[in-house]
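Protein modeling request. Please complete all fields; requests missing the sequence field cannot be processed.
Requester role: graduate student
Desired output: 3D structure, token encoding
Chains: 1
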Amino acid sequence: SGLDFCAVTDHAFEIVDWMWEESKKVTNSFNEPGRFVTFPAYEWSGVTDLGGDHNVFFLEDDPPLYRSRSYYDYMNLQMYHGSDPMVNHIEDLFITLACLQENENIFCIPHYGGRKANPAFHNPRIQRMVEIFSEHRRSHDWASGFLMNGQRLGIIASTDGHFGNPGYGYLKPVEDWDNQEIGMAAVAVYAQERTRESVFHALYNRRVYATSGDRIILDFNADYHPMGSEFASKTPPELHVKVIGTSPILRVHFRKNSLVAHTVETSGREVDLKWTDPQFNPDKETYYYVQVEQENGEEAYSSPVWVN
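Delivered output (308 residues):
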């Protein structure tokens, strides 16, 4: 599948301690700086009212595992449960992870899974991105709810596959697809190096964009501030997007505060566009990002830039 980095995010409520130790061991064994990057990670799963699914990622080799009691079979598995405490609400998870956080070494991503993440809960140090695509669904309306709540989150995608083939080096048999699954969604990262530290910090700082599966190349900036940036400006910033598609590009949408503000119809596989918002208000906080639509139905979304 041509991946540069990967993380396995098994449900924490299904992992007993020896499994977590084995998962970290295998994850670290496949981390090869300059060639392939892996991260220790898991999916914290509480019901939506308690925060919903969040994928938790670590920079260090040997992080703890915090489970939610919502789905953990405690009576049958407590004999395998070690010293890491149960964390039953997403706010408690934020506090627990913040106590471990040092130099941007932890983040979590709200996930639209079986227990979709709840935008009512937020910690800006811990939550750094939101998932817009997975193999199961496209969820712009849900993801934009986080942004419209004032949360400054990058936009990512992940395969969220359950077949052991991240990024889909081969396609699943047709009979294995249900009517919700749409492809092999993936996140792209602008990192200095193919190392765990460089990729992790690029993710943390939202230098990322989401694709529904095709390896679309997308670059977006505002007055040369890259996606994920926050900056102040008294004048409307020039928004600049470059795209190299895998199929003819039908249109590029410039989104302002999650709503389409300007659309450019295009053709061909490469575009280079600039736009300045004629209704920019320097007294209000505004965020911009772009959406790319291809002829073959594949899409890409940049992370936002926040102005003022």
